[in-house]
Amino acid sequence: MPYNRLTFKKLGDGEEQTLPAFLLPQPGPSSFMNDLEDERRYLAVYRHAPTKKGAGRGRGSHLSAEGVALARRIGGDLGPFHRVYVSPVPRTLETALAMGFAVDDVLEFSCGYVSGEFEHHDQWDWEEPYVRFAELLRSGGALAKSAATDAVLWAHLLADVPAGGRVLIVSHGGSIEPTLVACLPQAEHRTWGSPFSHCDGVILTFAGPGVVGDPGCFIAADFRRAATSQ
Q1: Shortest CA distance to 199 belongs to which of 61, 94, 81?
Q2: In terms of DSSP bridges, do strands 105-106 and 166-171 run parallel, antiparallel, or are they unpaired?
Q3: pLDDT tens-digit series, residues 108-129
Q4: Which of 17, 20, 48, 103 is the most exposed place for a label (fewest CB within 10 A)?
Q5: Which of 102, 105, 103, 93 shows the shortest CA–CA distance to 68?
Q6: CA–CA distance, 184 with 120 (Å, rounded to integer)
Q7: What is residue 1's DSSP assignment?
Q8: What is the mean pLDDT of the chain?
Q9: CATH number at residue 83
């Protein structure tokens, strides 16, 4: 018996799979999308800055001096934000603060990695990482489940800000990439380039909600590369 991929409840005979609008094929240019232009919100998702290595690791700050400097440079071109969220791992909090933004809350995001499906740093060995992520999500395994869950969370965070509002998430490589594909499943993934290096980011445009019952959808991704190694 098939399952609904978001609720993971068994579907009855003749019952169809249901997905939020932002996980369905995205609409093309239309008067509907023009109507939603004034309702757009923006989600910035960034990987944390570089951390200490060697003897200094685990002592004092988690970020290295170079990481703090990079986060400060990247943050100077961002914001302001209505809300800022980080993961429970200290390097994400330190990155947000070094960027110049106070943090509103700490949230649990999926780590992304799934044994036997997506191993640690596999994405750096794939020629077209986002194409590969799309293939894995279509297979409906554990990675698809975690990416769909985080995609719902990303959209939910935008519901708490006004039209035109901006939200920042500082998270981790391996977690960001599959969730990004889940948010824009019909995008030209082969054009998205490499996985997220330290302080790489993406600005997602979210249209809606428009009318009652319409949750809105992610419609565009603008990548911001920090030009660092992984």
Answers
A1: 94
A2: unpaired
A3: 998 877 887 788 788 898 999 9
A4: 17
A5: 93
A6: 23
A7: -
A8: 83
A9: 3.40.50.1240
Q: Where in the sequence is the domain holding 183, given as residue range(s)?
A: 31-224
Give all strands (DSSP E) within 31-121, no chain letters: 41-47, 83-86, 105-106
The CA distance from 229 to 146, in Å, is: 26
Q: Which residues contact 198 (CB under 8 A, 6 or more apart)?
A: 47, 48, 49, 50, 67, 70, 226, 228, 229, 230
Reduced DSSP (H G I as helix, E B as strand, rest coil) percent helix, strand, coil of the chain, to 5: 35, 15, 50
Residue carrying structure tokens 């999926």: 110
**1 part of a folded domain:** no
- Whether 229 is in a domain gets the answer no
- Whether the Cβ atoms of residue 49 and residue 68 lie closer than 8 Å to each other: yes
Q: 3-class SS at 67?
A: helix
pLDDT in tens, 163-177: 999 999 999 999 999
pLDDT band at 39 (very low <50, low <70, confident <90, very high): confident
pTM beyond 0.85: no
Number of compact structural domains in the chain: 1
Residue 8 lies in a domain: no
User: Long-range pairs for 123-129 at CB < 8 Å and ≥24 separation?
Assistant: 123/173, 123/174, 123/177, 123/195, 124/195, 124/230, 128/189, 128/190, 129/177, 129/192, 129/194, 129/195
